[in-house]
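Dear support,

We are seeing what looks like truncated structure output for some complexes. This example has two components. We would appreciate it if you could run it in full and send us the complete token output so we can diff it against ours.
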Amino acid sequence: MSQTHEISPRSGVAFLLDAGQELTVIDPRGGQVADLLAISRSDIREKISSGRTLDYAEKIYLTTGNKLYSNRSNVMLEIVADTVGRHDFLLTPCSEATFRLCYDNEPPHQGCHGNLAYALAPFGVADDDIPVAFNCFMNVPVDGVTGGFSVQPPLSKAGDSIRFRAEMDLIIGLTACSAPASNGGSFKPIHYRIEN
Amino acid sequence: MSQTHEISPRSGVAFLLDAGQELTVIDPRGGQVADLLAISRSDIREKISSGRTLDYAEKIYLTTGNKLYSNRSNVMLEIVADTVGRHDFLLTPCSEATFRLCYDNEPPHQGCHGNLAYALAPFGVADDDIPVAFNCFMNVPVDGVTGGFSVQPPLSKAGDSIRFRAEMDLIIGLTACSAPASNGGSFKPIHYRIEN
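Here is the complete output from our reference environment:
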């Protein structure tokens, strides 16, 4: 049986995921976002692209069956199971600037961006190269008429999960998100599991 | 009086825009998209970011008064006039892969991505570093319930325009878009003007 790993609240990790392996991201308590990045292990200049992925999917809310593409239009991951059905792929990981610009009453935090930059640095990924993440469980309803949106608490309940199959050898960055609005105002852990 | 420059159908250019200068992008015939990229001249690793911009604007349809942010959360451009009010900031520039995956009945074309990569290469910008562009006049209505979207003809009429003020010294990439659906099925030029 595969091991379940815990990401502590407001932190992030990076790890390898081989082509064919499956990654399950679990929200153990409910209402917690996990930002996910994927970078090609054979060339770190190839990385997950929201713009390519949304263009090919023709929708902004992705779920089971949708493929996550790289900036070179190769499939990096496919969503193979999803008990929630609402994730975000529009917004960048929260950062020190997010806190400065959007949460000026909150103590500043390096956010998911800082956590991902720290975790990915040993793999040679630079801070400036962190793109829009696939934000598991993040709930950003968009008003199709005005284009306005708001960041709402996740729809995920305790034990909900999303599972991805890797289509190439990857470096994965994954967080337990640090932004108040994204997580219903409280910061909880994220679990993940890798299976062959 | 400032000079009006023409970008030929299905091509692209790159040029410098100084802090304080204004760039007007004009659709001279109507129904034509122009993909716009902005890169900091002092450090090309700083570039326009859809994810930062949308996050701070809290809407997907940007217009007069909205600011376009970099990946470092600095303001690069502000939209100071807009006679259309509908542009896209979700999708990457069309590319050879776009034609392969989305237009398999069309002759392949290097698309805006290829045109931008060619135009920006002399400035040291690599193909892999081309992010989601601000797609002037591109009309991508999103269904807020399902998240589905479609690429519709632009709402711009002949002579419509959008004007930006530079907030830092920039390298600008700009195209007359090459994708059939984005431009109502025909390929037209784009005009632009720079004013101090």
